[in-house]
Amino acid sequence: MGGTCYRATVSSSPAPSVAPRRIHVSAAVILDDEGRLLVVRKEGTTAFMQPGGKPEPGETAGETLSRELDEELGVRIEPERLRALGTFTAAAANEPGFLVVADVFEADLAGQRPQVAAEIAELRWVTRADAEVVEIAPLARENFLPG
Question: I need a labelling partner for 29 at 20 to 30 A (CA). Which of 11, 16, 47, 58 fits?
Fold first, then answer.
């Protein structure tokens, strides 16, 4: 048998560590008179999250949130009326393997009533107790759910 002999070496070196990919957004903390947090659920998803979204080129974080609140909920809040709370990071609710990095602002609706618009399927006002029966995105659940 004059065939060629092949030898293979198998090594089990660890796979390189892959850092999670990041999604940068602006998000709102909006509380009602009863101290409940406003959360929204986008079409085709199951988790409720804070209203907000991704920036357009050249937008500041406040401008992004102002635009998103108008598009998603029909409420108008000028960027200068938003109060920065900081930057928060959590697992992304709807994109496995991603982290969401959110510039979060407190927003006062000043009597405006949010309405479902754009890609929003549903909105709710929730407390920590509601997280037992409603799927809340990690960012809101870990940082902003009231009492």
Answer: 58
DSSP-assigned states of every residue in 29-65: E-B-TTSPEEEEEETT---BB-SEEPPPTT--HHHHH
Report the percent of the chain where pLDDT is more than 70: 88
Instruction: State the Cα–Cα distance between residues 98 and 33, nearest whole angstrom.
Output: 34
Query: Tokens 């029966």 belong to which residue?
Result: 133
> What are the tokens at 91?
């697992």
pLDDT score of 126 more than 50: yes
Tokens for 48, please give them. Answer: 């409720």
Band (11; pLDDT cuts 50, 70, 90): very low
pTM confidence score? 0.85
